[in-house]
Structure formats: structure tokens, C-alpha cells
């Protein structure tokens, strides 16, 4: 199945849906089948917060083909207000504006166009809050 079709079949990628363990309350994104904290297998769906903070980041200067037009760009590990850590691009700012601990908002945007066909892949990026 092509990448965009595969991603369309994963609603958590578009709605930031995570799995919350019914036994211990730990939250996982992407969702898991077994809780890494307690081994339980029962989860409820929960929506991640739209906000978080930068835990660490780097500036990409040599990128894979689908991102080469965006160089240089920032990629950060961000921690949502729910405590879940995600890796995503930080956009609409200068690299020197970034700092560990800065607040970010998660936004749904075009990630890249795939291959010669230009099929657009969407996902989440972060902007400074």
C-alpha cells in the first residue's frame, strides 16, 4: 500500500490519539497493545494536548530527498502536556529562536510530497507558542 494510503488507515496520526492504560494511566503515542509500565492490555483512547515544550532539538542541514527543499530545518523532541514525547519538525521560526523548554503548539501541515507523482503526505509539526 502506498505511504499516504497506509497513513490514512492510522487515525491517530491525524487526530493525535494516544492510548491510555486503564490500569496505571500511562499514555502512549503511537498506541500500544501492551502497557510498557504495568503489562496491562486494556487501553482507552485519549487525545494528546495541542501544546508541549521542547526537550531537545537539532538543525538538519543535509536532509533526505523529500525534505531537501526545506533545509535547514529544525527537528525536536517535544513533550506534550500529557507527558508523551514526540519527534517532529519545528517550523515558522529561525533556528536561533529555538531553546530547550520553549513552549510549542502542534499543527497539522503538509510534511512533504512523495516521489515523482508528488503525492502529498500530511502530519504534525510544531510552531513556537
Automatic annotation (TrEMBL):
- SUPFAM superfamilies on file: Nucleic acid-binding proteins
Show where the ChsH2 rubredoxin-like zinc ribbon domain sits: 8-44
The ChsH2 C-terminal OB-fold domain extends over 47-109
State what protein this is by name.
Transcriptional regulator
Among PANTHER family, the record links this protein to: BLR3430 PROTEIN
Q: Which InterPro entries match?
A: ChsH2_C, ChsH2_Znr, NA-bd_OB-fold, Thioester_dehydratase-like
Provide an example Pfam family for this protein.
Answer: OB_ChsH2_C
